Amino acid sequence: MKLSRVFSFVLVLFFACPNLIVARDDLSLVDAQIASHLNQSGIYVLDTGEEALLARAWLADHAQKTIEVQYFIWSTDNIGILASEALLRAADRGVKVRVIVDDLLVDAPDKSLLALAKHPNIEIRIYNPQHSVGTPFHKRLVNIAVNFRGVNQRMHDKTFMVDGKLAITGGRNMAAEYFDYNSDYNFRDRDALLLGPVVEDMRTSFDKFWASPLSAPVEELYDGLGLVQKNVSVKADEIQKIYADLHSYANNPDNFSPENREAIQNTPQAFMRLTKQVIWTEIEFISDTPGKNSNKLLLGGGGKTTEKLAALVENAQSEIVIQSPYLVMSSEAIKLFKKAIKRGVKVQINTNSLAATDNVQAFSGYRNQRETLTKMGIEIFEFKPDAQIKHLLVRHNTNGVLKPPIFAIHAKTMVVDHKIVYIGTFNFDPRSQNLNTEVGVILQNAQLAKEVQTAIEVDMLPENSWNAATDHPDKFASASKRRRVFSYQLMPIKPLL
């Protein structure tokens, strides 16, 4: 039985109320499972925001030695604050915490970020800091003018690792909309909970980013004279107040619903039940190197994840099923899929409709080639903003809400020949192909492939998606959104999408 059917509305309080946890498990069950599956790694697919947040909460609260975290987005919304407090609690009990966050969308207050980095057990590094952390506005403009490729090269990795033996990777960033807690917009996403040797490969990748010159310690970014860096400092009493405010927020029952408080009583055994549903097999972790590729000026170049995923398409024999929020194929990708279709491979892709998408610029690239793709023989299904599947995946009560949140795809998944599965961060667009560093796992397992493909096929049903070739889905978007996407279609921005 899926965990989401057993527990509801449990996750935020798991972050916020550690005192409600009956006892701290020593991970002996996890250790025993790893020991009994030599040379294999375990995987459990986290298909709902509820499961995904529960898993992260349990990992943060049960870490004994280390936590290593790598994210593209870490927001200062409810979920982001609670996650930060959970890491602070872990650090307070002696766990060594290392965090790498991409610079582009960091919105944390300068002093709060610096205060966390000054904790003796917390280290925070910012990847490619040319936009936000420690960067004055005028310096950001200079960076864009003199290093256009550099400012567009982002770290899109998402990994969460505990004690070198448990980890999570997949599509979700650390923000409310990725866990179904946003009141306006939520994502249908997918993560993988991992156990065993594959986690060491993930740590190796993390260490490469940690050691890279592109990853700068937070303290260094604020130690400036105001010309090229912000000059920010935080006093000892300010640090302690920031810590106290985080703890106070996380332990304030007024921040959470009665359903959360009631369900938390069933939490202690939840994660252990989940681990018993793990599939053990050989799992390959794929990742790019810091910087993606050797290009310094041009926007192309590919990367290791690009090569791995291209090889899956190139070697496909019967069927490829893809789920991706954005679909903008490069000329190389189009050639690859043309060859696959020519040798008899069936290709189905589930992506966002104009009415659902959060990225009109990316949709403009897809719209420019949609007819070409469907005429090639690719079956494309565009996700509806009010897809019926939402009622099964999102368990929050929306009664009385005048305008229910839009529900859109954010999962990045591929199933090949009913036996090979990729789950990760790679969007099928030029940015993931050439600019952003990406990660994910590839494994060959017919059981898991069937489960994941079935989930995507449900998302492609008429009650959840429109057929791009016959339903003319753009008509269901607002007139203003159609005008915006048309204006972007006229711009030469495809390499940046």
Question: Topology, pairings included?
Answer:
Blueprint: H1 3-6, H2 11-16, H3 28-35, E1 41-46, H4 49-62, E2 66-71, H5 78-92, E3 96-102, H6 110-117, E4 122-127, H7 137-146, H8 148-152, E5 159-162, E6 166-170, E7 185-188, E8 191-195, H9 198-211, E9 215-217, H10 218-221, H11 236-250, H12 258-263, H13 270-275, E10 279-281, E11 283-287, H14 304-314, E12 319-323, H15 331-342, E13 346-352, H16 360-376, E14 379-383, H17 390-393, E15 406-409, E16 413-416, E17 420-424, H18 430-435, E18 439-444, H19 446-459, E19 465-467, H20 479-489
Parallel strand pairs: 2-3, 3-4, 7-15, 12-13, 13-14
Antiparallel strand pairs: 1-8, 1-10, 2-5, 4-9, 5-6, 6-8, 11-18, 12-16, 14-19, 16-17, 17-18
Helix pairs in contact: 4-5, 5-11, 6-11, 16-20
Low-confidence stretches: 1-25, 258-268
Overall outline: globular
**Overall tally of structural domains:** 2
- Strand proportion, as a percent range, falls in 15-25%
What's the quaternary structure here? single chain
Q: What can be said about the biggest beta sheet?
A: 9 strands, mixed
Q: Number of DSSP strands?
A: 19
Per the CATH scheme, the topology name of the largest domain is: Endonuclease, Chain A
Structure commentary:
Helices cover 38% and strands 19% of the residues. With 497 residues, it is an alpha+beta fold. It is globular, with a radius of gyration of 22 Å. It has 20 helices and 19 strands. The strands form three sheets. A nine-stranded mixed beta sheet has the order 9-4-3-2-5-6-8-1-10, with helices on both faces. α4 runs parallel beside α5 and α16 crosses α20.
